[in-house]
Amino acid sequence: MGSRREILGIGAGMAAAGLMPGFASRAFAAESRRDRKIGYAVVGLGYYATRQIMPNFTGCEHSRLVALVSGTPAKLEQYGTQYGIPKTHRYSYAQFDSLRDNPDIDAVYIVLPNSLHAEYSIRAAQAGKHVLCEKPMATSVAECQAMIAACRKAGKKLMIGYRSRFEPYNRLAIELARGGHVGPTRFITAEHGFPIQPGQWRLDKALSGGGSMMDIGIYSLNAARYLTGEEPLEVSAVESTDRSDPRFATVEDRIGFVLHFPSGIQANCISSYSSAHNGYRVTGTQGWIAMEPATSYTGQAMTIRKDGVIAPRTLPPAARNQFASQLDHLAECVLTGATPIVSGEEGLADMRIIEAIYRSMVERRHIGLTA
Predict the structure, then answer these.
(1) Which of 36, 87, 97, 150 could pair with 125 as two cysteines, CB 3.0-4.6 Å apart?
(2) How many other C-beta atoms are found inside a 10 Å radius of the C-beta of residue 197?
(3) C-alpha span between 67 and 270 (Å, rounded)
(4) Largest Cα–Cα distance of the chain, in whole Å?
(5) Mean pLDDT throughout 29-57?
(6) Are 216 and 194 in contact (CB under 8 A)?
(7) Stretch (H or E) spanning 363
């Protein structure tokens, strides 16, 4: 993301949005994919947007980059020139609502600090645009519900940026785990962490909503859910944070949490801002399926132990990487009327569990989960 001053400037004057739930107000007519591509406006020109999202539009079949939104004029000039975005399609945050007047923009991709996700997603829907919002969806269950209601009322799609759901090895892991390739799943471990550098907006709770759990820990949580295909019944969590470390003045470092699922599967998960790991293992009655790295930008690797034999599993190169596939998925849903596989309800489900994890961490007890 940009500088702290720029980020705080985005949020100046934010008003609480008290939206009532609405209902889909119109049907989506299927459009020929050969005739047009869905036009995206990328909102927020930080590292992830400029280094991972925007370069991957070239690999898309149904999506194109048509507009940029940033609070930094130099970024608008730099990336506008790089991607051939006309000045009429470069917006400041003060001009955000005028996206409604640009018919080239079908959807917006919100790549802002977590505390701004709800506001800008809601405003995008009110401007008549479909929404792809980065994870975590928001900083509270209430914000997630408001986002869903706003998009439903506007008749617009809402999708959350769970890119790993479009990565081939993770898709294979889901198929194998749910299909009982190594027997019925009994146990899952999922560990994600990295040593975070000081000075990032993610270490400011007002912007992030929390520490590692609101960032890298979501990969452990979401993996446990998509590998089982179930929703947990109960969670327990323990925090470990060195408060003398200036990085953790307002947010947590490590959380260990345990999820119990209806089928009896137990998932032991780690979220960390002070250790480097990225992987998960699904253990069944006949062996295990391991991914390490599991959810990185590139380089996923799978190993399977079945009936005493350990071997790597490799896939041929995919036509589209996870970033392009994610962008195209929302486009395809817009064009056909389908519901995204990672809709707003998926982000809401994670947020409900995250709130329970924080509650368990504070109250030092198991927390039951209800829909």
Answers:
(1) 150
(2) 10
(3) 38
(4) 62
(5) 85
(6) yes
(7) helix 344-363
Query: Residue 284 CB: number of other CB atoms within 10 A?
Result: 20
pLDDT above 70 for 67? yes
Query: For 326-344, what is each residue's pLDDT tens digit?
Result: 999 999 999 999 999 999 9
Where do the DSSP E strands lie in the chain?
38-43, 63-69, 90-91, 107-110, 130-133, 158-160, 185-193, 234-240, 254-260, 266-272, 277-284, 287-291, 302-306, 309-313, 367-368
List CB contacts of 20: < 8 A, sequence separation 6 or more: 149
Contact at 8 Å (CB) between 288 and 304? yes
The candidate with the shortest Cα–Cα distance to 69, out of 52, 49, 91, is: 91
Confidence of residue 370 (pLDDT cuts 50, 70, 90): confident
Active site residues: 135, 219
171 and 289 Cβ atoms separated by less than 8 Å: no
Residue 302's SS3 state is strand
Between the alpha carbon of residue 20 and those of residues 147, 151, 188, 251, 350, the distances in Å are 10, 11, 39, 31, 22
- The two structure tokens encoding residue 132: 């792809």
Q: For residues 212 and 192, what is the distance between their CA atoms, to the nearest angstrom?
A: 9
CA distance to 11, 42, 315, per residue, from 90 (Å): 19, 10, 40
pLDDT at 59: 97
Length in residues, the chain: 371
Q: How far apart are CA 234 and CA 232, in angstroms?
A: 6
Give dist(CA 151, CA 36) in Å, integer.
23
pLDDT at 371: 58
Q: Which two tokens stand for residue 189?
A: 């471990």
Mean pLDDT of the chain: 92
- Residue 35's pLDDT band, with cuts at 50, 70 and 90, is low
Asked whether 131 and 105 are in contact (CB, 8 A), the reply is no
- 172-218: pLDDT as tens digits: 999 999 999 999 999 999 999 999 999 999 999 999 999 999 999 99
Q: Which two tokens stand for residue 86?
A: 């006309």
